[in-house]
Specification:
Elements: H1 4-8, H2 12-23, E1 31-33, H3 38-52, H4 65-68, H5 75-81, H6 89-105, E2 115-117, E3 123-125, H7 126-139, H8 156-159, H9 164-170, H10 182-197, H11 202-205, E4 206-207, E5 212-213, H12 218-225, E6 227-228, E7 234-237, H13 238-249, E8 259-260, E9 263-264, E10 268-270, H14 272-280, H15 287-294, E11 299-301, H16 304-318, E12 322-325, H17 336-344, E13 348-350, H18 352-365, E14 373-375, H19 379-403, H20 412-431, E15 441-443
Parallel strand pairs: 7-12, 14-15
Antiparallel strand pairs: 1-13, 2-3, 4-5, 6-7, 8-9, 10-11
Length: 449
């Protein structure tokens, strides 16, 4: 059996750990669960699908690509793919993946006060604003080692030179336009440059022909692992892409993240409820929680940014006829829009003691704030995120059932895009029109949310 560190970094670790929290609500320390209210969430998701799509078959992936485009502006096609003249389709996709990797890693919560004015005059905040800021920076050659001749690329050597000042300038940060976690984002880009250059990752990121180190070079690794099918598609297991993302990029995570035997395991956190569940001897526990228990560890795995990146890379890779298999092992994303939805619609509610602690922290940090506030590593946040992932599985299954579609026809990643993420944002805007923020505030370091 692979070592525990490898197991915790796997996709299967997410569902095996998060599901236990939902199956054992008696051990939750911070939330009460009201599953009878879940159908209201499902109804809301179905209403959005009916409102926004002529047919459920039209729903795209929940992908970073959506944040670059609008109903009228197809910016990736117009500004990246169409501008890549004199290069083949593989190189075009390399450039899109260069951009997407950097942009996803910059896509932690921006804070309610920040916004960005794009080069075409569009002003947006949050995820869309972060996407447009990264796109402008990319188009200007901000990540390229040869910005004059080939600005639209990301080179390891340039990432290592990015400063906080450069990032704040590129993202239009000012006293009146503050961005949460600027230093953390800058450190993430610098570490990305280092992992791209690490010889152990050469199989993912080094192109022998071009003699360069780029995120987009993972295209060649993935294509080499694919199997040509009778319909002309290239069949690729999602585990191949996950290997490039998780193994290739594991070195970017902060040193403060959870480690097992000296190995960083990424977005994995200790959880008191998990300890109580495993010590009681849950019969539903899978092999990964049991292996962790044997070593005295009680963790919940999320891999939010890594899964978000994996979902986001599938779409440009489809331009090379890649068809991804084993999609069912991926999960929903443990972030504040999905999680906020379940809190706002009272499927889960903070226990009084935890809420009081969070409200007190918010009041101390921001005068007049009544939205509970916690550090990202707080046990309450770990519980919240774990319940979010498990509840998304239930919503996905119920939406598929109501529409008479299979998981293959309407995978969870499309339910996230058409429904839960969007519904979470719309409900938040109605309940908190001033901030439009989530019902629980997270102290972000720019590397998780």
């Amino acid at each position: 059996m692979p070592p525990l560190s490898n197991q915790l970094r796997s996709l299967r670790a997410v569902r095996q750990t998060t599901s236990l929290l939902l199956e054992n609500p008696q051990h939750l320390n911070h939330f009460d669960l009201s599953l009878e209210k879940l159908d209201s969430v499902v109804d809301g998701v179905l209403a959005l699908i009916k409102r926004d799509y002529k047919s459920p078959q039209e729903i795209p992936f929940h992908s970073r690509w959506r944040h670059f485009d609008s109903a009228t502006e197809k910016r990736i096609q117009k500004l990246v793919l169409d501008k890549a003249e004199g290069v083949d389709q593989v190189e075009k996709v390399r450039r899109v993946i260069d951009l997407f990797v950097v942009s996803v890693l910059l896509d932690a919560g921006a804070g309610a006060q920040w916004s960005y004015k794009f080069s075409d005059g569009t002003v947006l905040g949050r995820s869309e604003g972060l996407a447009l800021a990264s796109l402008d920076w990319f188009l200007a050659g901000g990540f390229s080692a040869t910005p004059t001749s080939t600005p639209q690329r990301v080179d390891a050597s340039s990432l290592q030179l990015v400063s906080v000042e450069a990032l704040e300038n590129a993202f239009q940060v000012s006293v009146s336009n503050p961005l949460v976690g600027a230093a953390g984002r800058c450190s993430l880009l610098s570490r990305l440059g280092s992992v791209l250059l690490d010889p152990i990752n050469a199989r993912f990121f080094y192109n022998k022909e071009n003699k360069d180190y780029r995120p987009g070079n993972m295209v060649d690794y993935i294509l080499a692992k694919g199997v040509e099918k009778s319909d002309g598609k290239v069949g690729v297991s999602v585990t191949v892409l996950w290997e490039a993302v998780m193994d290739g990029l594991s070195g970017i995570w902060p040193a403060t993240r959870t480690t097992v035997d000296g190995v960083s395991v990424g977005d994995v956190w200790p959880c008191k409820a998990m300890e109580a569940i495993m010590k009681e001897g849950s019969k539903a526990a899978g092999p990964i929680p049991n292996l962790a228990k044997d070593d005295g560890f009680y963790f919940v795995a999320f891999h939010k940014l890594s899964q978000w990146l994996t979902y986001s890379l599938m779409e440009p890779l489809s331009l090379l006829n890649c068809a991804f298999e084993e999609m069912d092992i991926m999960t929903g994303l443990a972030e504040y829009r999905n999680g906020g939805l379940f809190v706002d619609m009272e499927v889960i509610t903070l226990k009084p003691e935890t809420k009081a602690r969070g409200v007190a922290a918010a009041a101390a940090a921001t005068s007049g704030s009544t939205v509970p506030k916690f550090e990202v590593f707080d046990d309450a946040v770990v519980e919240w995120r774990g319940l979010t992932v498990a509840l998304l599985d239930l919503v996905g299954a119920r939406v598929q059932n109501r529409l008479g579609m299979s998981a293959a026809e309407l995978p969870l990643v499309k339910v996230l895009e058409a429904g839960t993420w969007k519904l979470g944002r719309e409900v938040a805007a109605k309940l908190r029109p001033d901030s439009k923020g989530p019902p629980i505030d997270i102290v972000s370091d720019g590397t998780v949310f």
